[in-house]
UniProtKB/TrEMBL annotation:
<feature type="domain" description="Core-binding (CB)">
    <location>
        <begin position="27"/>
        <end position="131"/>
    </location>
</feature>
<keyword id="KW-0229">DNA integration</keyword>
<dbReference type="InterPro" id="IPR002104">
    <property type="entry name" value="Integrase_catalytic"/>
</dbReference>
<feature type="region of interest" description="Disordered">
    <location>
        <begin position="375"/>
        <end position="395"/>
    </location>
</feature>
<dbReference type="GO" id="GO:0051301">
    <property type="term" value="P:cell division"/>
</dbReference>
<protein>
    <recommendedName>
        <fullName>Tyr recombinase domain-containing protein</fullName>
    </recommendedName>
</protein>
<dbReference type="InterPro" id="IPR044068">
    <property type="entry name" value="CB"/>
</dbReference>
<dbReference type="GO" id="GO:0007059">
    <property type="term" value="P:chromosome segregation"/>
</dbReference>
<keyword id="KW-0233">DNA recombination</keyword>
<dbReference type="GO" id="GO:0005737">
    <property type="term" value="C:cytoplasm"/>
</dbReference>
<dbReference type="InterPro" id="IPR010998">
    <property type="entry name" value="Integrase_recombinase_N"/>
</dbReference>
<keyword id="KW-0238">DNA-binding</keyword>
<dbReference type="InterPro" id="IPR050090">
    <property type="entry name" value="Tyrosine_recombinase_XerCD"/>
</dbReference>
<keyword id="KW-0131">Cell cycle</keyword>
<feature type="domain" description="Tyr recombinase">
    <location>
        <begin position="180"/>
        <end position="378"/>
    </location>
</feature>
<dbReference type="InterPro" id="IPR011010">
    <property type="entry name" value="DNA_brk_join_enz"/>
</dbReference>
<keyword id="KW-0963">Cytoplasm</keyword>
Length: 395
């Protein structure tokens, strides 16, 4: 970032005067932030998210002719307002473009309350690190009133997931025969190499993989065929997840079937082998190249929108149509973990499958107690209330 951080107008950010007593090798705010980001190089997705939020802050400070050292509570309040409505829009908001593209902008639009909260959570951690590094002398986030509540980015329960009825419809929709022109193609009539069939088969596998194993988007894109290994007659998925944490996840039978069907589409034997170490799991249309993180993200997002359109045309429940339109690829992970919990998988094993460091993180996916509570509450009815000792005449 220190070398390529640019303003939305394409001008490089100016260097600020180096504070005294610094404990890092930096000569500008951008270099100081880059030193902080270097702590997260082993987690590419975290690094990318942290760079996005820190870069937005530095670009806004440059537009205000301020530096990190100038941030006080009032400046932070103005930045919060800016995140909710980045103006002027033509300077800050634009379509998704590579960062080197002239039309690149830091925002796709105004940030939702949850996204603003996430941004502030990240920047609070950045400032805590910069204080320890001696780059700034205070953390303005400490002055926030009710900080623990405002910066708590975890809701009591996970709500961003597809309900069971909606997932059942979506999976059925993904498995519909592909229509090409006037010809309806099925598994038996499609010749290998048909693009429509390949694309539908790939979508089925992507959504099946996401639902059955709860991978993060980066874990899906980086997966290799050899990550699926058999040990003592049982199949496991070996994955290096968030924070370079290594995990081994049991494969449900349905996942093994999905994998075998996908490999058949690619012209491969049913079972993967250790000899396929460099073979990507998810493929581009040529059947050889791997799908990048952004490609996979856009593919899943576009599929949600197409499904929403189809469900709306079928006069499906409006709340389900709205959920599909709002859904992001990470909803699939939430959906998987939530449905696994609802199916009765123990909290301990669920935490292992989800690769959660803390059980209370996994417990946010447990909706069974809510269902039981709601059911029990139905016992409390007006018809069960004791009759009044007063009748109309007495009154």
């Amino acid at each position: 970032m220190a070398n390529d951080l640019m303003s939305p107008t394409g001008q490089p950010l100016a260097l600020n005067e180096m504070p005294s007593g610094v404990r890092i090798s930096a000569k500008s705010d951008a270099q100081a932030v880059m030193a902080w980001l270097d702590e997260y190089t082993d987690s590419p997705q975290t690094w990318k998210a942290y760079r996005r939020e820190s870069e937005r802050l530095l670009l806004w400070l440059a537009s205000q002719h301020l530096t990190l050292a100038n941030i006080n509570r009032e400046v932070l309040r103005r930045f919060e307002e800016f995140l909710a409505d980045p103006q002027p829009s033509e300077q800050w908001v634009g379509p998704s473009k590579p960062r080197a593209h002239p039309a690149w902008r830091p925002f796709r639009g105004a940030l939702s309350p949850a996204s603003r909260r996430q941004s502030l959570v990240i920047l609070q951690g950045m400032f805590a690190w910069l204080v320890e590094a001696g780059w700034v002398n205070h953390n303005p986030f400490r002055l926030m009133r009710d900080k623990s509540r405002r910066l708590n980015n975890q809701s009591p329960h996970i709500e961003r997931y597809l309900e069971s009825e909606l997932w059942a419809w979506l999976w059925q929709w993904l498995n519909r025969p592909v229509a090409v022109g006037q010809e309806v193609l099925t598994k038996r009539t499609i010749e290998k190499g048909n693009r429509a069939h390949f694309e539908q088969s790939r979508l089925r596998f992507i959504f099946g993989f996401a639902y059955l194993l709860a991978p993060r988007i980066s874990e899906m894109a980086d997966a290799r065929m050899s990550d699926f290994q058999r040990s003592e007659g049982r199949w496991w998925w070996h994955v290096v997840g968030k924070g370079s944490k290594v995990a081994r996840i049991p494969l449900p039978d349905d996942m093994l079937d999905c994998l075998g069907q996908w490999r058949q589409i690619l012209g491969l034997p049913h079972d993967p082998s250790a000899l396929e170490a460099d073979t990507p799991l998810l493929r581009a249309l040529d059947g050889q190249r791997s799908l990048g993180h952004n490609q996979l993200y856009r593919l899943i997002k576009a599929t949600f929108h197409q499904a929403a359109q189809s469900l709306e045309e079928e006069s499906g429940p409006p709340q389900h149509v709205a959920a599909l339109r709002q859904a992001t690829p990470h909803w699939l992970r939430h959906t998987s973990i939530t449905h696994q919990a609802q199916s009765g998988i123990s909290l301990r094993h669920l935490a292992e499958s989800a690769r959660h460091a803390r059980l209370d993180t996994t417990s946010r996916y447990l909706h069974n107690e809510d269902i039981e509570w709601h059911s029990e509450q139905q016992r409390h009815r007006l018809s069960n209330s004791p009759s009044s000792r007063y009748n109309g005449a007495d009154a």
